[in-house]
Amino acid sequence: MRLVDQWRRALARARRGELAVLRQPWHRPVPGGTVAPYLVKVLCADEGRLAAWGTRYGLPARGICRHGSIPHYDLWGPLADRAWAELAPATLGTGPDAGPGENAEGAGPGAPPPGGSPFPHQGSSPSQGGTVLDHRNPERPAGIDSQAPGPAPAGGGPGPRAVVAVLRGPWPAGDAAARLVRAGWPGAGALYDRWQHVLEIAPLPPELARRLAHEAAGQTGFATWRPYAGAASLLLGGSLPQLWSLACRWGGHPAVPDPGRGPEPGGTTAGLGAPFTGRDQPASGEDLTRSAGHALARALLSLPHLPPGRLGAEGGAAPLSPAGVPAGSPVGGTAPAGRGRAGPVSAAPAAGAPWPAGGFPAGPVPLALGPRKVDFRGRSLLFGRRTLIMGVLNVTPDSFSDGGRYNAPDRALRRALEMVAEGADLIDVGAESANIAASKPELEEELARLVPVVERLVREVDVPISIDTYKAPVAEAALEAGAHIINDISGLHADPDLAAVCARYGAGVVIMHLQGHPRRLAREPRYDDVVLDVARYLAEGVQRALAAGVRPEAIVVDPGIGVGKRTRHNLEILENLGAFRSLGYPVLLGASRTSVIGNILETPIGDRLEGTLATTALAVVHGADMVRVHDVRANARVARMADALVRGWDEPAGGWPFDAVTGRQRRPLRELGRLPVRPGDQSRT
């Protein structure tokens, strides 16, 4: 049974005055410090009947939650198991009390069997108490005053602790050496090889960080380490060949053995950016050294404006293109065709394909450093040619920016067609506002807003349709209606089922960072280092997506400007935007009309266009692949101009429309709005 059908069945039963049960993704700490992936909700429109049920289990009537349309208890721990075992068969239509029209379908792969646990209890026991949450203080159990919730992990929800490497500088608009390489100057490659790059790798145990810093300093001339998040981070700087040699050595590449030790076991198969083995079983020093090497390799392969074939010039490793295959291979980097434009569109290496001899055994790096077309359920986007434009379409009555303007299918369709004509490459549709003060719709209300709009857009708009949701049932319904991409503001941390839904439908996934939960953002956000914390959170989301079967080339990451961050955090992320490319995936920036712009310019929401345009230009400079904006035409034009300056340009086949000397118009102008696309570069199907 689909998740959305489970919710509909439970809500229908509860509205008839019968007891029903369903699971809500939670994935947050509960009293006692454990993390509950789910809360179990017991619902009934007849509040007296619900209170009587609660009395059987010692639950006070004041623990009933009355927000939303149906009174309910929110349960966790052993009592949640008992409630699920008692009520799930009738709710899901598998027991003798199934209501009219309920068939004998099972709970499906996303739900536990009757009598089974709805989520794993990490050390919970009946003595912990706190089996019902007090909704006056959702993180404190009703009737329990002696326990406080455990702290949330830095940067967001729980997950494997990924070792990440991020670029810390320099931040050029295609640095001088790279520009000379692209322009074809003789000997410019040697200059690029001498350009110094600074990267940071974290988290590492302090002793390991100290040892690697000593080793790196002997190779590159600069390395140091510092405390970070209860562990340490390693900062090192050097030229590309020096850093690549370190990455190969630490990663266990057989062509560059560690002197005196030889290749590490498993060095030819370890995955790039491998995580710690877990919080309960710390990884060994060799595992973490390999993880550091793989993370460094991914960051180097993801450098903005990296010319093809520049890595691996020293240290015995074969030169690699940005796609991670030997230079000159038909799959991977391509030679420049125009002034900075890459040549033919390159195909991504096949998932799971063995790496060619001499290639770094690091796994795929989906970031498109050359043009790469990616299919999203029958519609495609071309990454790496120019900065893509994602148009925002809110079908909510209370969005912070344009709530209520497009919450009818006809108005939503007109706006979507208008944005496509103005230059949007894809449309992002949201049916629940991220505004912290906005109301949060029940599932049926959200689907009623969303599904009719998606069905119209898929039929009548020729670009991919993205859905802004963190809920698996909503994503499943939208994908059934024909959507192509899921944009999860929680980065696959809020609903553990969402990644599997995306993988099952072959959808693309945007993994965004936030601190807190989409329905309760952190009001006092704190970070050890906002760039590293956000990068680690995104890396954990990527790992969840890959583990569920999402295609690597279908993943995009978004640092989450304005969500669970103070103004200083947002500014630091914007200043270091290029660091997030180091994860090896396309980067989306969604800064349009956000509070950081309002605070700097001291302007209301409707008067933040100039600030948004500045962030779009900055995104292009830092190598972002996509920007999410409300004002499509203006941002598309800024991105087009910035792309010409940063990525390079090609003279149109018919020549420029204006004579550069006289200023006279020589040919008709192309349609304003939708960006011109060269033959063979179609990014839409």
Automatic annotation (TrEMBL):
<comment type="function">
    <text>Catalyzes the condensation of para-aminobenzoate (pABA) with 6-hydroxymethyl-7,8-dihydropterin diphosphate (DHPt-PP) to form 7,8-dihydropteroate (H2Pte), the immediate precursor of folate derivatives.</text>
</comment>
<feature type="compositionally biased region" description="Low complexity">
    <location>
        <begin position="95"/>
        <end position="106"/>
    </location>
</feature>
<keyword id="KW-0460">Magnesium</keyword>
<keyword id="KW-0808">Transferase</keyword>
<feature type="region of interest" description="Disordered">
    <location>
        <begin position="90"/>
        <end position="161"/>
    </location>
</feature>
<keyword id="KW-0289">Folate biosynthesis</keyword>
<dbReference type="GO" id="GO:0005829">
    <property type="term" value="C:cytosol"/>
</dbReference>
<dbReference type="InterPro" id="IPR000489">
    <property type="entry name" value="Pterin-binding_dom"/>
</dbReference>
<feature type="region of interest" description="Disordered">
    <location>
        <begin position="312"/>
        <end position="349"/>
    </location>
</feature>
<keyword id="KW-0479">Metal-binding</keyword>
<dbReference type="GO" id="GO:0046654">
    <property type="term" value="P:tetrahydrofolate biosynthetic process"/>
</dbReference>
<comment type="similarity">
    <text>Belongs to the DHPS family.</text>
</comment>
<protein>
    <recommendedName>
        <fullName>Dihydropteroate synthase</fullName>
        <ecNumber>2.5.1.15</ecNumber>
    </recommendedName>
</protein>
<dbReference type="Pfam" id="PF00809">
    <property type="entry name" value="Pterin_bind"/>
</dbReference>
<feature type="compositionally biased region" description="Low complexity">
    <location>
        <begin position="118"/>
        <end position="130"/>
    </location>
</feature>
<dbReference type="GO" id="GO:0046656">
    <property type="term" value="P:folic acid biosynthetic process"/>
</dbReference>
<feature type="domain" description="Pterin-binding">
    <location>
        <begin position="387"/>
        <end position="640"/>
    </location>
</feature>
<feature type="region of interest" description="Disordered">
    <location>
        <begin position="255"/>
        <end position="289"/>
    </location>
</feature>
<dbReference type="InterPro" id="IPR011005">
    <property type="entry name" value="Dihydropteroate_synth-like_sf"/>
</dbReference>
<dbReference type="InterPro" id="IPR045031">
    <property type="entry name" value="DHP_synth-like"/>
</dbReference>
<comment type="pathway">
    <text>Cofactor biosynthesis; tetrahydrofolate biosynthesis; 7,8-dihydrofolate from 2-amino-4-hydroxy-6-hydroxymethyl-7,8-dihydropteridine diphosphate and 4-aminobenzoate: step 1/2.</text>
</comment>
<dbReference type="GO" id="GO:0004156">
    <property type="term" value="F:dihydropteroate synthase activity"/>
</dbReference>
<feature type="compositionally biased region" description="Low complexity">
    <location>
        <begin position="321"/>
        <end position="349"/>
    </location>
</feature>
<dbReference type="GO" id="GO:0046872">
    <property type="term" value="F:metal ion binding"/>
</dbReference>
<dbReference type="InterPro" id="IPR006390">
    <property type="entry name" value="DHP_synth_dom"/>
</dbReference>
